């Protein structure tokens, strides 16, 4: 580990945004008439953030950038690259990045490379990778790079609806001053495939088309492939706890993160049975489960969830709580979970390695390792994620459902004046003022 | 110029694709009942390529990759990065890149970074920039990078319809062997803004929303800003012909390219009146035209189109003919025009510099310089662009209009079996077999 080369470029600052309103999963269970615990225990989710008609992908991305810029006292002219990762498409041609240029133009900076990167929940990670490459290439112009990941995830009424969410994250990259959060060169593994596990072919409808069972096995297969590739690349043969101190996953819902970590342990077991805790040899019966069956074998899953329980608490729990309380923020999920672990652990992380797994349906996936190389106290203590989560307005499922039905009817319509009261938004939040008769969007701020 | 640093990474090979069928602009003029010359002289366009229901963005991108791979005898395992630039969105989540992974998975290579880059016609250039950065960063894994740009441009009946087009281009990047086509480091200038000159907010409709007058002035303003920035960055004070030997532009239609080159000369004139040919001082009356008026001043435009006429023939014509015959292929426009000049000039280009201007509405733009550093004879003689253009099937405007009307009705519908005869496609062309009831697309090949 000590011989590992770190990127010169890294994360200087990070900022998160989520809407001021949310619905409780326990309330949704009652409202939907499902068994108690189906969402809270079955999915492992506590609350779900959602937006009303005042917020869209441009507004939440603008807000998170404004927050970052204000908090860091950044001169917008010091940013040479801005890239957005999102799958919340409100225009098939115009990028969210160009809408964000409004802020930069006001500051007199139009010389900002980068556009939008898109593939489901993976676009933000692609944007991060692009920015890291740019910053250590001859093309770097010496300025900061900014990556914004944001999404609004909504589903039709039915079993997928409680797996929605909303959020955005802005990540500032730089080389000078030396960034505290760096990336381990050569500790990156990628796996891509052509799949239809989750996609959005219904262009005139906000909801995705999901094959629930398939997307879970695609996720786990991608996880396997990335993990095996990463271990090979880094020469790691033992447990995931030898590879990293913490782990952060793209979080469709918490139970999936739980299963994913167990799956890493299953991989560890197959490579080296001594790397897992199995004093009574109870796991040996899973050694010969055919690969294809292993993705759906409930006994196997349960056994490794149990086996990995203590390690999960230590390695994953410090970063898993934000996604449980805002839901799946797609491209923002992984990167806001990184922010969560930074807030949770602060300078305890110095010298520690965080394993990250990014997954986007369709499918694109990468696993990589981040190292906290120097103190992050100021960064982590200024995030105020928990404070803001606790300060949210909890609405009842009827209201949540009404909002989604109203948005469903208005999706892709023009000449719209949003109805939501500005007082329902956080202060200093960019929000939609109107959509004109040809679909141009105009924004204001609380 | 000799002291200029070149990128190590560069273009090893390039391949173009356009549909086998096209419509003549002169025929369209008659069909539309407009004055003779409105499209052929007014727009400067000869023919327009279009696709029927057998081809979509995935099929044309797959075909161009297959062509490149076959021609170069490439092992698909030797490609470590694949990125797509497009604004032809058939899915709001799943990238075209992941659909292309089908080819790579068949060859056993799933370790391929990169997704889709999107902002109107600029996405391909963003993908190229990303690939260049990756290849000269610590993240490069030693393999080739492949960029695919493709689009299908169609417009509602009316004045914009003849500005459609279709095409795709695949560009192979590498460092070893030393690539003949390289990029001048520091000779890149970018300008981005938030505009609504051309956008696609009608998600359930294939056609864009265009403000024709605004998009032309946005294009020219972006051109001004990039050109001025590039001249400053490279220390160039004279004529465009001092900066480069050739120039290639994103080509919405040829007259726009003509105007753009004239605009560069107008810029040259404002900087140094001695850099333009004006023996009788006829241009001096344009010196004090206010900037805002200069974009719409027809006399000014005409004067500089005349002034730049000889230089246009020398610098721009060698690369402007492909776009005149296929129309606007959006992200593929600029990069297939580069292929055109390579075919046209071959090894005459060795040691020459090509100025390139990329524009995507919304808006994102960059100007940069490519250098042909070593012989390209094999590359240029194997493109066969003109041969293929001449071998196309010319259809009448009635048929073209029928196809677009049929596609308009079927846009975003599922359970579709395409009606176009396979014999109408080029041989060895990937094409759509069917769209199933939930929108999954399946392909076959001629």
Automatic annotation (TrEMBL), chains A, B:
<dbReference type="InterPro" id="IPR000590">
    <property type="entry name" value="HMG_CoA_synt_AS"/>
</dbReference>
<feature type="binding site">
    <location>
        <position position="259"/>
    </location>
    <ligand>
        <name>CoA</name>
    </ligand>
</feature>
<comment type="similarity">
    <text>Belongs to the thiolase-like superfamily. HMG-CoA synthase family.</text>
</comment>
<feature type="active site" description="Proton donor/acceptor">
    <location>
        <position position="250"/>
    </location>
</feature>
<dbReference type="Pfam" id="PF01154">
    <property type="entry name" value="HMG_CoA_synt_N"/>
</dbReference>
<keyword id="KW-0753">Steroid metabolism</keyword>
<protein>
    <recommendedName>
        <fullName>Hydroxymethylglutaryl-CoA synthase</fullName>
        <ecNumber>2.3.3.10</ecNumber>
    </recommendedName>
</protein>
<dbReference type="GO" id="GO:0006084">
    <property type="term" value="P:acetyl-CoA metabolic process"/>
</dbReference>
<dbReference type="Pfam" id="PF08540">
    <property type="entry name" value="HMG_CoA_synt_C"/>
</dbReference>
<comment type="function">
    <text>Catalyzes the condensation of acetyl-CoA with acetoacetyl-CoA to form HMG-CoA.</text>
</comment>
<dbReference type="GO" id="GO:0010142">
    <property type="term" value="P:farnesyl diphosphate biosynthetic process, mevalonate pathway"/>
</dbReference>
<feature type="active site" description="Acyl-thioester intermediate">
    <location>
        <position position="121"/>
    </location>
</feature>
<dbReference type="InterPro" id="IPR010122">
    <property type="entry name" value="HMG_CoA_synthase_euk"/>
</dbReference>
<keyword id="KW-0808">Transferase</keyword>
<keyword id="KW-0756">Sterol biosynthesis</keyword>
<keyword id="KW-1207">Sterol metabolism</keyword>
<keyword id="KW-0443">Lipid metabolism</keyword>
<dbReference type="InterPro" id="IPR016039">
    <property type="entry name" value="Thiolase-like"/>
</dbReference>
<keyword id="KW-0444">Lipid biosynthesis</keyword>
<keyword id="KW-0752">Steroid biosynthesis</keyword>
<feature type="binding site">
    <location>
        <position position="255"/>
    </location>
    <ligand>
        <name>CoA</name>
    </ligand>
</feature>
<feature type="domain" description="Hydroxymethylglutaryl-coenzyme A synthase C-terminal">
    <location>
        <begin position="181"/>
        <end position="444"/>
    </location>
</feature>
<feature type="domain" description="Hydroxymethylglutaryl-coenzyme A synthase N-terminal">
    <location>
        <begin position="8"/>
        <end position="176"/>
    </location>
</feature>
<dbReference type="InterPro" id="IPR013528">
    <property type="entry name" value="HMG_CoA_synth_N"/>
</dbReference>
<dbReference type="InterPro" id="IPR013746">
    <property type="entry name" value="HMG_CoA_synt_C_dom"/>
</dbReference>
<comment type="pathway">
    <text>Metabolic intermediate biosynthesis; (R)-mevalonate biosynthesis; (R)-mevalonate from acetyl-CoA: step 2/3.</text>
</comment>
<dbReference type="GO" id="GO:0004421">
    <property type="term" value="F:hydroxymethylglutaryl-CoA synthase activity"/>
</dbReference>
<dbReference type="GO" id="GO:0016126">
    <property type="term" value="P:sterol biosynthetic process"/>
</dbReference>
<feature type="active site" description="Proton donor/acceptor">
    <location>
        <position position="87"/>
    </location>
</feature>
């Amino acid at each position: 580990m000590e011989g590992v080369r770190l990127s010169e470029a890294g994360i200087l600052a990070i900022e998160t945004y989520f809407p001021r309103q949310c619905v409780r999963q326990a309330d949704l269970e009652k409202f939907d008439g499902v068994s108690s615990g189906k969402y809270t225990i079955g999915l492992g989710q506590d609350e779900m953030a959602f937006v009303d008609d005042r917020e869209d992908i441009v507004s939440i991305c603008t807000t998170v950038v404004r927050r970052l810029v204000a908090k860091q006292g950044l001169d917008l002219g010091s940013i040479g690259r801005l890239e957005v990762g999102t799958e919340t498409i409100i225009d098939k041609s115009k990028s969210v990045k160009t809408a964000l240029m409004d802020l930069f133009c006001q500051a007199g900076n139009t010389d900002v490379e980068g556009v939008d990167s898109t593939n489901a929940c993976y676009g933000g990670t692609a944007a991060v990778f692009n920015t890291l490459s740019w910053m250590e290439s001859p093309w770097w112009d010496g300025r900061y790079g900014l990556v914004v990941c944001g999404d609004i995830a909504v589903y039709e009424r039915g079993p997928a609806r409680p797996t929605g969410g909303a959020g955005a994250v802005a990540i500032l990259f730089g080389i000078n001053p030396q960034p505290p959060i760096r990336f381990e060169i050569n500790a990156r593994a990628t796996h891509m495939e052509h799949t239809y596990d989750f996609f959005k072919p219904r262009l005139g409808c906000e909801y995705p088309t999901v094959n629930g069972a398939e997307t879970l096995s695609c996720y786990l297969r991608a996880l396997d492939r990335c993990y095996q590739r990463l271990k090979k690349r880094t020469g790691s043969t033992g447990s995931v706890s030898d590879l990293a101190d913490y782990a952060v996953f793209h979080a469709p819902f918490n139970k999936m993160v739980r299963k994913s970590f167990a799956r890493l342990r299953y991989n560890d077991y197959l490579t080296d049975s001594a790397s897992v805790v199995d004093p009574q040899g109870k796991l040996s019966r899973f050694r010969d489960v055919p690969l294809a069956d292993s993705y759906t074998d409930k006994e196997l899953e349960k056994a490794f969830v149990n086996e990995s329980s203590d390690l999960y608490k230590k390695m994953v729990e410090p970063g898993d709580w934000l996604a449980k309380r805002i839901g799946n923020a797609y491209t923002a999920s992984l990167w806001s979970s990184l922010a969560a672990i930074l807030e949770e652990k602060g300078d305890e992380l110095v010298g520690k390695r965080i394993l990250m797994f990014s997954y986007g349906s369709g499918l694109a996936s990468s696993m990589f390792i981040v190292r906290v190389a120097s103190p992050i106290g100021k960064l982590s203590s200024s995030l105020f994620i928990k404070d803001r989560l606790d300060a949210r307005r909890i609405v009842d499922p009827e209201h949540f459902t009404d909002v989604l039905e109203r948005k469903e009817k208005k999706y892709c319509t023009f000449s719209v004046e949003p109805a939501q009261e500005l007082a329902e938004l956080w202060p200093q939040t960019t929000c939609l003022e109107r959509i004109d008769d040809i679909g141009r969007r105009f924004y204001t701020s609380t």
